[in-house]
């Protein structure tokens, strides 16, 4: 028997980018462990808002790099993008930051 502490699940991270005029955001970075840590670090340094959702990240990890998100995630990602715009507006005006949206995805949609 060993006295090792139980291992924490490896952190995952996904970065999305949306170009105006394109049909949907695309996955521009994704990874686990140290790569995930680096994605989060770069986002924080750039002042990018970070939203944590293990369920959503798990689904986005299945999308290939440089590919658009699947239509099933359009609504959830649109809500996240709207949240980000509200955060930017609140920061500029000094208003309180809006609460993060619920990114749980009903099993009936998957």
From TrEMBL:
GO biological process entries: protein secretion
InterPro entries xref list: T3SS_substrate_exporter, T3SS_substrate_exporter_C
Provenance organism: Duganella sacchari
GO cellular component, one term: plasma membrane
Annotated family: Belongs to the type III secretion exporter family.
Keywords for the protein's UniProt record, in alphabetical order: Cell projection, Cilium, Flagellum
Name of the protein in question: Flagellar biosynthesis protein
SUPFAM superfamilies named in the record: EscU C-terminal domain-like (SSF160544)
